[in-house]
């Protein structure tokens, strides 16, 4: 049995002090961090072997994580939580924050996902970035990212999460803007960071509210104390945390940065903007279950945000000709599913994490596959220039197809199990949300089939001089592993394993029967997906695809192509008024404040004129004025003294 | 009598100033030798600072004290001593000056070439910088209000000449504007200093010792008047809205090295004075004035950041970011909680380190590009990756990225502000978004994009240039993960101050006893 709050049956974080293999927790983060430091500080000397060292680091972390997982799995359910205190970080008044790490069943899964998929992407990048003269720098940033992401999921308190949170934001900034000589890349990097900072307002204030409420941000303590706070306070904390999560996980209304982020090299899109970093928001909500379970209104907000986003992203995915942007829209949508699971509470937490993991497999697989295609197509990303790539790149095609079947939820593939569970739970809790999730699944079937057909099937529409070829083994190897995981990931659900595994963290839920039998829901979902696939087949499989996108299209298509006007809305609501405000403040400062309010120039003009006349030497006149000033002081004091 | 280490620390740079100023006439024939001389004297001051830090006893109150009667009739003493707050400011000063000298190695030479008097100009620059160091140390160590006032005013002389003689553009105007504002503030402070004497004399033997004044029964109205006088002077110094307009005009035209001395050392006297004198001597009036002060601080945070976003001159931009940061520091001081005040003290140190790095790197950049205008830059990253990396780290420090030392202090201030009133925290936190915009937009325009055609061959940082910024970057990262040394100095000071002011931290709204109870229950369940 694990620690529970008696009255509410919401689990309490109650770790033991780390010992045995768990005393190596720090090393999991330290390895990639050391890699980044060596590569960045070592300079060109490390060029010949830097990428190999950088690849070894996450593999090392993976091995440690695996050892811990095996050890934890062999223990009693209540004994899988360990805390490691490294040092005191902040000590002021009643506020004490340690640099503390927490290992528990939730972070265990994240450790394996981050270091496992991370290692594969490092290996892939050896080939993908081979001809880039700044490859060492790329690997240093990747290592930095892995270290920060591991900090994020291992931190025992919200301040530590914030440290990792911003660390991954920094790595994301550096990697989106990796090809910084392109204006578009530099602008996209800045955009991602700034929008995430808006989310950070939520995280900062959430942490501040936690401090004033509990005087701590430790999971152990907050989970025990949360029951004592008012629902209003907890709702506020929940909504503030959600704002942070929206930034990091590209949920509406802070979604606009993710599509631009595709400016980064493709392995970055796979690792950061599909498999790991963008799911940090889901992690935050699940991790904070002891807050959200007591704040139903905040959970409702999570569900609304998630539902809007899963449809929003899916619609965008339908209209993009850029293969990476189509996948990015898909990522938004899939994170919407995870967020939905997390918003549904105890019934959904485990499935949110389950989908997060399977998505990590199949989306990383497809992004790397897209990178492989781009590699063969001279870095062209326009699917209208693809077609029939299947013949030239059979391994890429087959592995991509596994990811495709997984994401649309083809029966038996990993995504089938994980998405189905979320739809089923959503339908049980609220049929409108459930229907939206079902609809989203159909749209997913449509846009993924469209992508598949435009890329791998049909007529060759290759640009002159393009000769696609299969990628080297160092790239196809990781593809094959990820494809296998995309197929088999569903095994985590066997015997409800993942639900039981996560129970000590997120609690247990008495099974509720959905309004219609679960098997019927599954059948309906498969049918809806089939309809989506069928429509895509009619539109893109049966007809030739023109080289350029048609211009005379419906409003809906135009809106989808423009990311549902996300940028236009930001422009109108934030950027333009903000620019006007800056201009107004600049004018005010010069005219009103400087001239009128403080009379600065008047003073300077008047007294300055006097001084300037004594051009012969500022020294003399200033010395005289100091002397005069001192005299005034002494005289004034004497007068006061003797009066 | 023990060794007067504080007097020595003040005297060494002052002697150094005289020696370097006279060096050309004493037969020192090379500019390099003069600069090495400057480095030597500031190095000795640094060693003295480190020795003090090593001997400092965390809970020991005022230490290394020296008290001598100066003007008996007026109760004026030559009194020095350091507590946690002073110690941190002293250390910040002694660390930054040698770094500034190293980073500005050729600045004075270039002006010397322009003016055709190489040796004299170089010597003057080093001499004024050392003089400013010595006087600043005296300001932070003074434990007599009158002595404080005298050295406070005296710092203006080296600052004035550093701006007026070594800047670019209309530097004479900048120096004058700086001087007028500071003299104006100083005049108001003088009135306050005289007023203090009156109050002190009315209560028996007059004394200017801070320790005596702190225990003086000042009546409410007099206290408020005196508070206003002191606060205005410090608000001009720090600076706060609306008396900030000298700041950007000054940093725009001064050399980057001078700006480090001005913004990172000299301006700290403002916030230092708020803690030491406004809160220390007039606790009742400080709380009375809090609504106005907090409003000015919040305006400064947002207004300074908005102004910074709109700048095209990189040196003006950095100056205005400091307006925003001084708003944060003031907000922390007037939050009246240990988080706020410790946060403010740490913020003073961290801002000093981060902004120094930013000014110095901007200086490197300007030297290479020959202009201060951001719109004339772009595409540097490929040719100068090290320069770009250091600029980014300094910029990230300015936007308080977690993992770099300014994060802790800014978060503490936000927590304290939030604790005071949730909307105060909400306004202050907007600063984190605005900071991201002004830093990253500037970085984007300066460093990224295709290399400029007209840039010519741009060389990356040399060994001397790297040596000057490495300590700053190391401090930013080191103190970001391990800020404990700073807390050890600031916490005892803050708890004394809180007690003196008569405020306590708000208790958390949920009683931690619940945790203990819940914990026991969990044990039983197992």
From TrEMBL, chain A:
<dbReference type="InterPro" id="IPR003945">
    <property type="entry name" value="NU5C-like"/>
</dbReference>
<dbReference type="InterPro" id="IPR018393">
    <property type="entry name" value="NADHpl_OxRdtase_5_subgr"/>
</dbReference>
<keyword id="KW-1133">Transmembrane helix</keyword>
<feature type="transmembrane region" description="Helical">
    <location>
        <begin position="20"/>
        <end position="40"/>
    </location>
</feature>
<feature type="domain" description="NADH-Ubiquinone oxidoreductase (complex I) chain 5 N-terminal">
    <location>
        <begin position="89"/>
        <end position="139"/>
    </location>
</feature>
<dbReference type="InterPro" id="IPR001516">
    <property type="entry name" value="Proton_antipo_N"/>
</dbReference>
<feature type="transmembrane region" description="Helical">
    <location>
        <begin position="298"/>
        <end position="315"/>
    </location>
</feature>
<feature type="transmembrane region" description="Helical">
    <location>
        <begin position="392"/>
        <end position="411"/>
    </location>
</feature>
<feature type="transmembrane region" description="Helical">
    <location>
        <begin position="518"/>
        <end position="540"/>
    </location>
</feature>
<feature type="transmembrane region" description="Helical">
    <location>
        <begin position="474"/>
        <end position="498"/>
    </location>
</feature>
<keyword id="KW-0812">Transmembrane</keyword>
<dbReference type="Pfam" id="PF00662">
    <property type="entry name" value="Proton_antipo_N"/>
</dbReference>
<protein>
    <submittedName>
        <fullName>NADH-quinone oxidoreductase subunit L</fullName>
    </submittedName>
</protein>
<feature type="transmembrane region" description="Helical">
    <location>
        <begin position="161"/>
        <end position="180"/>
    </location>
</feature>
<dbReference type="Pfam" id="PF00361">
    <property type="entry name" value="Proton_antipo_M"/>
</dbReference>
<feature type="transmembrane region" description="Helical">
    <location>
        <begin position="106"/>
        <end position="126"/>
    </location>
</feature>
<dbReference type="InterPro" id="IPR001750">
    <property type="entry name" value="ND/Mrp_TM"/>
</dbReference>
<feature type="transmembrane region" description="Helical">
    <location>
        <begin position="431"/>
        <end position="453"/>
    </location>
</feature>
<feature type="domain" description="NADH:quinone oxidoreductase/Mrp antiporter transmembrane">
    <location>
        <begin position="155"/>
        <end position="440"/>
    </location>
</feature>
<feature type="transmembrane region" description="Helical">
    <location>
        <begin position="52"/>
        <end position="73"/>
    </location>
</feature>
<feature type="transmembrane region" description="Helical">
    <location>
        <begin position="622"/>
        <end position="642"/>
    </location>
</feature>
<feature type="transmembrane region" description="Helical">
    <location>
        <begin position="138"/>
        <end position="155"/>
    </location>
</feature>
UniProtKB/TrEMBL annotation, chain B:
<feature type="transmembrane region" description="Helical">
    <location>
        <begin position="6"/>
        <end position="26"/>
    </location>
</feature>
<feature type="transmembrane region" description="Helical">
    <location>
        <begin position="386"/>
        <end position="408"/>
    </location>
</feature>
<feature type="transmembrane region" description="Helical">
    <location>
        <begin position="118"/>
        <end position="140"/>
    </location>
</feature>
<comment type="similarity">
    <text>Belongs to the complex I subunit 4 family.</text>
</comment>
<protein>
    <submittedName>
        <fullName>NADH-quinone oxidoreductase subunit M</fullName>
    </submittedName>
</protein>
<dbReference type="InterPro" id="IPR003918">
    <property type="entry name" value="NADH_UbQ_OxRdtase"/>
</dbReference>
<dbReference type="InterPro" id="IPR010227">
    <property type="entry name" value="NADH_Q_OxRdtase_chainM/4"/>
</dbReference>
<feature type="transmembrane region" description="Helical">
    <location>
        <begin position="344"/>
        <end position="366"/>
    </location>
</feature>
<feature type="transmembrane region" description="Helical">
    <location>
        <begin position="420"/>
        <end position="441"/>
    </location>
</feature>
<keyword id="KW-1133">Transmembrane helix</keyword>
<feature type="transmembrane region" description="Helical">
    <location>
        <begin position="288"/>
        <end position="310"/>
    </location>
</feature>
<feature type="transmembrane region" description="Helical">
    <location>
        <begin position="225"/>
        <end position="248"/>
    </location>
</feature>
<feature type="transmembrane region" description="Helical">
    <location>
        <begin position="76"/>
        <end position="106"/>
    </location>
</feature>
<feature type="transmembrane region" description="Helical">
    <location>
        <begin position="146"/>
        <end position="166"/>
    </location>
</feature>
<feature type="transmembrane region" description="Helical">
    <location>
        <begin position="178"/>
        <end position="199"/>
    </location>
</feature>
<feature type="transmembrane region" description="Helical">
    <location>
        <begin position="260"/>
        <end position="282"/>
    </location>
</feature>
<feature type="domain" description="NADH:quinone oxidoreductase/Mrp antiporter transmembrane">
    <location>
        <begin position="142"/>
        <end position="434"/>
    </location>
</feature>
<dbReference type="Pfam" id="PF00361">
    <property type="entry name" value="Proton_antipo_M"/>
</dbReference>
<feature type="transmembrane region" description="Helical">
    <location>
        <begin position="38"/>
        <end position="56"/>
    </location>
</feature>
<keyword id="KW-0472">Membrane</keyword>
<dbReference type="InterPro" id="IPR001750">
    <property type="entry name" value="ND/Mrp_TM"/>
</dbReference>
<feature type="transmembrane region" description="Helical">
    <location>
        <begin position="461"/>
        <end position="482"/>
    </location>
</feature>
């Amino acid at each position: 049995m694990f620690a529970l709050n008696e009255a509410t049956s919401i689990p309490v974080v109650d770790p033991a002090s780390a010992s045995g293999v768990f005393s190596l927790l720090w090393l999991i983060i330290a390895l990639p961090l050391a890699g980044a430091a060596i590569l960045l500080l070592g300079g060109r000397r490390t060029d010949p072997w830097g990428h190999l060292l950088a690849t070894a680091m996450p593999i090392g972390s993976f091995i440690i994580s695996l050892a811990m997982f095996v050890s934890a799995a062999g223990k009693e359910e209540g004994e899988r939580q360990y805390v490691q205190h490294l040092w005191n970080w902040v000590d002021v008044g009643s506020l004490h924050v340690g640099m503390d790490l927490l290992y528990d069943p939730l972070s265990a899964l994240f450790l394996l996902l981050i270091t496992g998929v991370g290692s594969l992407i490092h290996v892939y990048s050896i080939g993908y970035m081979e001809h880039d003269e700044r490859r060492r720098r790329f690997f240093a940033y990747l290592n930095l990212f892995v270290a920060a992401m591991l900090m994020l999921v291992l931190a025992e308190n919200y301040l530590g999460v914030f440290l990792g949170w911003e660390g991954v934001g920094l790595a994301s900034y550096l990697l989106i803007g990796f090809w910084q000589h392109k204006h578009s890349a530099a602008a996209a990097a800045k955009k991602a960071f700034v929008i995430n900072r808006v989310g950070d307002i939520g995280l900062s204030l959430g942490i501040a509210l936690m401090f004033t409420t509990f005087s701590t941000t430790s999971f152990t303590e907050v989970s025990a104390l949360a029951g004592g706070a008012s629902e209003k306070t907890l709702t506020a904390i929940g909504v503030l945390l959600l704002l942070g999560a929206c930034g990091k996980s590209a949920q509406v209304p802070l979604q606009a940065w993710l599509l631009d982020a595709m400016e980064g090299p493709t392995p970055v899109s796979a690792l950061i903007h599909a498999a790991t970093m963008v799911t940090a928001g889901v992690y935050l909500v699940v991790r904070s279950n002891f807050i959200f379970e007591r704040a139903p209104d905040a959970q409702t907000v999570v569900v609304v945000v998630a539902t809007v986003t899963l449809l929003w992203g899916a619609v965008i995915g339908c209209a993009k000709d850029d293969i990476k942007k189509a996948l990015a829209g898909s990522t938004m949508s899939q994170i919407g599913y995870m967020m939905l699971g997390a918003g549904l509470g105890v019934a959904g937490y485990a499935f949110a994490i389950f989908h997060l993991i399977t998505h990590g497999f199949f989306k990383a697989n497809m992004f790397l596959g897209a990178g492989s295609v781009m590699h063969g197509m001279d870095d062209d990303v326009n699917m209208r220039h693809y077609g029939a790539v299947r013949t030239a790149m059979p391994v890429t095609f087959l592995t991509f197809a596994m990811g495709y079947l997984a994401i649309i939820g083809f029966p038996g593939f990993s995504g089938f199990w994980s998405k189905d569970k979320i739809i089923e739970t959503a339908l049980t809790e609220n049929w409108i949300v459930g229907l939206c999730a079902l609809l989203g699944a159909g749209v997913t079937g449509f846009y993924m089939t469209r992508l598949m057909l435009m890329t791998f099937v049909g007529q060759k529409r290759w640009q002159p001089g393009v000769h696609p070829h299969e990628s080297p083994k160092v790239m196809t190897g990781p593809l094959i592993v990820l494809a296998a995981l995309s197929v088999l990931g569903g095994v985590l659900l066997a015997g409800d394993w993942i639900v039981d595994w996560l129970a000590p963290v997120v609690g247990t839920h008495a099974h509720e029967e959905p309004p219609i039998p679960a098997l019927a829901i599954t059948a309906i979902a498969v049918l809806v997906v089939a309809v989506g696939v069928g429509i895509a087949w009619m539109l893109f499989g049966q007809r030739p695809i023109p080289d350029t996108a048609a211009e005379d299209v419906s409003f809906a298509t135009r809106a989808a192509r423009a990311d549902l006007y996300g940028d236009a809305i930001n422009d109108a609501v934030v950027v333009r008024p903000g620019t006007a405000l800056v201009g107004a403040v600049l004018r005010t400062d010069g005219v009103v404040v400087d001239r009128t309010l403080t009379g600065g120039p008047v003073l300077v003009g008047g007294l300055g004129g006097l001084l300037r006349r004594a051009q012969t030497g500022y020294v003399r006149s200033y010395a005289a004025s100091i002397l005069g000033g001192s005299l005034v002081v002494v005289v004034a004091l004497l007068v006061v003294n003797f009066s | 009598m023990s060794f007067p280490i504080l007097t020595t620390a003040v005297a060494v740079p002052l002697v150094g100033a005289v020696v370097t100023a006279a060096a050309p006439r004493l037969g020192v024939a090379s500019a390099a030798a003069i600069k090495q001389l400057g480095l030597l004297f500031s190095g000795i001051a640094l060693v003295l600072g480190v020795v003090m830090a090593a001997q400092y006893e965390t809970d020991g109150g005022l230490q290394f004290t020296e008290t001598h009667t100066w003007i008996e009739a007026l109760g004026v003493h030559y009194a020095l001593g350091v507590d946690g707050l002073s110690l941190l400011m002293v250390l910040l000063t002694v660390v930054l000056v040698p770094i500034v000298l190293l980073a500005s190695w050729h600045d004075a030479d270039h002006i010397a070439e322009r003016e055709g008097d190489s040796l004299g100009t170089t010597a003057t620059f080093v001499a004024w910088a050392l003089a400013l160091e010595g006087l600043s140390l005296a300001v932070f160590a003074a434990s007599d209000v009158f002595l404080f006032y005298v050295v406070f005013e005296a710092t203006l002389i080296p600052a004035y000449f550093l701006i007026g003689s070594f800047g670019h553009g209309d530097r004479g105007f900048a120096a004058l504007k700086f001087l007028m504002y500071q003299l104006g503030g100083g005049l108001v402070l003088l009135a306050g200093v005289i007023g203090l004497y009156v109050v002190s004399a009315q209560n028996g033997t007059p004394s200017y010792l801070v320790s005596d004044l702190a225990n003086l029964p000042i009546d409410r109205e007099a206290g408020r008047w005196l508070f206003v006088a002191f606060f205005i002077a410090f608000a001009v110094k720090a600076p706060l809205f609306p008396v900030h307009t000298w700041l950007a005009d000054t940093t725009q035209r001064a050399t980057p090295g001078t700006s480090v001395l001005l913004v990172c050392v000299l301006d700290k006297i403002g916030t230092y004075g708020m803690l030491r004198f406004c809160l220390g001597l007039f606790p009742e009036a400080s709380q009375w004035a809090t609504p106005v002060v907090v409003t000015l601080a919040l305006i400064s945070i947002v207004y300074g950041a908005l102004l910074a976003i709109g700048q095209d001159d990189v040196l003006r931009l950095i100056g205005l970011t400091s307006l925003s940061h001084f708003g944060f520091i003031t907000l922390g001081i007037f939050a009246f909680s240990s988080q706020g005040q410790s946060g403010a003290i740490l913020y003073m140190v961290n801002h000093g380190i981060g902004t120094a790095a930013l000014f110095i790197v901007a200086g490197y950049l300007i030297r290479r590009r020959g202009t201060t205008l951001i719109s004339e830059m772009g595409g540097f990253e490929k040719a100068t990756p090290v320069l770009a990396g250091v600029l980014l780290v300094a910029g990230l420090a300015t936007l308080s990225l977690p993992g770099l030392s300014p994060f802790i202090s800014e978060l503490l201030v936000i927590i304290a502000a939030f604790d005071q009133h949730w909307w105060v925290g909400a306004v202050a936190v907007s600063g984190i978004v605005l900071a991201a915009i002004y830093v990253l937009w500037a970085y984007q325009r300066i460093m990224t994009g295709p290399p400029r055609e007209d840039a010519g061959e741009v060389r990356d940082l040399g060994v001397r240039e790297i040596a000057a910024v490495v300590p700053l970057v190391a401090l930013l990262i080191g103190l970001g993960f391990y800020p404990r040394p700073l807390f050890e100095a600031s916490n005892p000071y803050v708890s004394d101050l809180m007690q003196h002011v008569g405020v306590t931290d708000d208790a958390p709204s949920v009683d931690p006893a619940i945790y203990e109870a819940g914990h026991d229950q969990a044990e039983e369940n197992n």
